Amino acid sequence: AARRKGLRLVAPVANRPDAAHAPEPADVMFAETLRQADRYARRFRTGRLATVVALVLAVVASGVVVQYREATARERMAEAHRLAEVSGELLSTDVALAGLFAERAYRQHADPQTRKALFRAVTESPHLAGSVRAAGTVSVVAASQSGERALTGTRSGDVEVWGLEDGRFTGHHRRVGGLPGSVETVASDADGRVVAASDDRTVSVWTAGQSSPVPSLPEEQTPAAVAVSPSG
Predict the structure, then answer these.
(1) How many CA atoms within 13 Å lie on the side-chain side of 133?
(2) What is the CB neighbour count within 10 angstroms for residue 155?
(3) Arithmetic mean of pLDDT, 8-16
(4) How far is the first Cα of the chain from the last one, in angstroms, to the nearest whole number?
(5) What tens digit of pLDDT does each residue of 22-65 get?
(6) Torsion of CA 94, 100, 104, 106, to 10 degrees
(7) CB–CB of 144/172 below 8 Å?
(8) What is the C-alpha separation between 32 and 69, in angstroms, rounded?
(9) In whole angstroms, what is the distance from residue 203 CA to residue 180 CA?
(10) How far apart (Å, rounded) are the C-alpha atoms in residues 201 and 98?
């Protein structure tokens, strides 16, 4: 019972034969005098107290870390919201600078407020040629060298191409193909006929909308970028 409760026993040396069947030799300490027995008892109490103190300190430290992380997250959110507010104030005087503030705010803490600031800054830009709806959340954007094709990749793996004329969308659109993971890079030849894209594991190439043989990568290597020569 004493062992189940985590207790240690101190007994007179004369009782050593009676304790021969103790579950563990360390369960019983034998003292020749009362002073020695008291010293053993204090040692046991000190050890148990040290264990309790260590556990308490560990719990306190964990709480401090959690509080620090939460405080840091709140500070980042507050700073991002301040940047978003500055972006809104700059829209009427400097759209380009407003866009920089909005982008910084969104990258620091993405939420409805910073997303709204970024959307306003983009749509207020005098350089905006137009907008289109992609198949999903856009993860990468590129354009052909001729300026006649805009290419996008989405987090869901879709690769799409839009027609451009004088920097504006013509309405021509087609889905080139798809990848298993989120598209990380996309590129094309000069006129957008040959398109290449990659996710974190694979590379795919399409010619005139038809899938070409998939390039094989060395084992344990992942694609970092793709490019297509102007001639394809």
Answers:
(1) 0
(2) 15
(3) 52
(4) 82
(5) 544 445 565 556 666 566 566 766 767 777 777 877 877 777 77
(6) 80
(7) no
(8) 55
(9) 10
(10) 37
